[in-house]
Amino acid sequence: MVKIASGSLGDSFSVGSLKAYLSEFIATLLFVFAGVGSAIAYSKLTADAALDPPGLVAVAVAHAFALFVGVSVAANISGGHLNPAVTFGLVIGGNISILSGLLYWIAQCLGSIVACLLLKFVTSAESIPTHGVAAGMNAVEGVVMEIVITFALVYTVYATAADPKKGSIGTIAPIAIGFIVGANILAAGPFSGGSMNPARSFGPSCC
């Protein structure tokens, strides 16, 4: 049976843990900067036109590539979560303590906020694109959509990165994680926004 650890101040504020929080902050910042930046760039190039199929593909690919890089650069320091939902899943699985998980959340959300503030400054954008449920779709349907695609992401993380029996497949974990995020954005983007990541949604909503 999995034992969920509450954690201790000594462990959660050790030098290694502080490096992990900083790694999550930087990696999430870079991921959100590229992902949200791709949406801003699309709006600029199309004079704020509605998102069309080529634009959806471009945004999905940008998120997939950025997440692949973010997970890769942070994997050996913090585990490369970049996502409070992933951190929550790993807390439930006993891979990280509750206290450290909460500090991961803070680092991830701060990274997202800083990324959006930087984007707002460098692009002179009046507003940052946010996630929302599409017209004709109610909140319950949107929540179910996000639950399904977030489960797909967390399941992929467990299968390729967190499972101790993963063997050599762990080497392709960042690619698989990036691919599932890109695929889920293609599937859910026009309906629920395809977030899968509370930090990715939180940053734009604060700016």
Short description:
With 207 residues, the chain is an all-alpha fold. The chain is 68% helix and 0% strand. α2 (15-45) runs antiparallel to α3, α3 runs antiparallel to α7 (173-188) and α4 crosses α6 (139-162).
Written account of the structure:
It is found in: Vacuole membrane. This protein is mainly alpha-helical and 207 residues long. Helices cover 68% and strands 0% of the residues. The chain contains eight helices and no strands. It has helices at 9-12, 15-45, 53-74, 84-92, 98-123, 139-162, 173-188, 198-206. Helix 4 crosses helix 6 (139-162). The longest helix is centred in the N-terminal third of the chain and has 31 residues, at 15-45. The protein is globular. The mean pLDDT is 93.
How big a fraction of the residues is strand? under 5%
Oligomerization: single chain
Tell me the overall shape. Answer: globular
The major sheet is characterized as: none
Name the descriptors.
membrane, mainly alpha, single chain, globular, transport, 207 residues, MIP_CS, AQUAPORIN-8
Secondary structure blueprint with pairings:
Layout (H helix, E strand, L loop, with lengths): L8 H4 L2 H31 L7 H22 L9 H9 L5 H26 L15 H24 L10 H16 L9 H9 L1
Helix pairs in contact: 2-3, 2-5, 3-7, 4-5, 4-6, 5-8, 6-7
